[in-house]
Amino acid sequence: MSNYMPKGSISATTSGIFYLEKIDSISFGSILRSAEESTLGSGTVDLITACECIHWTDTIAALQEFGRQLKPGGTLVLTHYGVAQILGNDSAQRIWKAIWGVHSTKAKGALFDRAFQLCNKALEGLEFPELEWETVKRIYINANGNLESFIFNERVGESRRVKNGEEKVWEDGDEQWSDQQGIDWLRGYFGTWMPRIPESEIQFLWHDMELVLKGEKVRIEFPVVMVFATKTQHSPY
After folding, report:
1. Which of 4, 7, 59, 155 is the most exposed place for a label (fewest CB within 10 A)?
2. How far apart are CA 56 and CA 19, in angstroms?
3. Which GO molecular function annotations are given, in alphabetical order (predicted)?
4. How much is the average pLDDT of 129-153?
């Protein structure tokens, strides 16, 4: 990941650990505000990260607010990881997708619709106006050259907002976003999703999964997208 960061005082590694260079002291504080509106001063921030959350916001308002907060030349980093894919066992993957399908029938409403439309297209529905942003780079990890692995259900948005000048990077086989796991892990992982699905509603699917896995672990892999955007020197914000 360090190869993807713009030049400056901030670098990062694939493990997600950020190293701040040329800074004598660092202090941290917290402010309880929304992504769309903050009390932070204009042009006061070097780096903004929004990890696993941009799809729950009013994205147009949030990106404008991030642009206002950033210094000219400052960097915005957005990340999203899709649902873990089961590799090397097609039967288990089909059952796993059927479990997703049950969740999709429960996740209803405008908020979920907007989130799915954005995530199912790997954040490609986000637009970065050229007057405000430059050097936009979209990095797709474990996506195998397409966006299919990000699609969770039929609520798919658009990709038309990706501009020709934006750079796309595809990185496959990232071991830090893969693992060997069994059915207990899959149950626990699924149990973190909202809204929660009663076990009784999908018990037959977990039974089928047990029969297919036979107590063995399978390889899982997460598709990940990271978007890096730099605020222009002449941004109106």
Report:
1. 7
2. 28
3. S-adenosylmethionine-dependent methyltransferase activity
4. 95
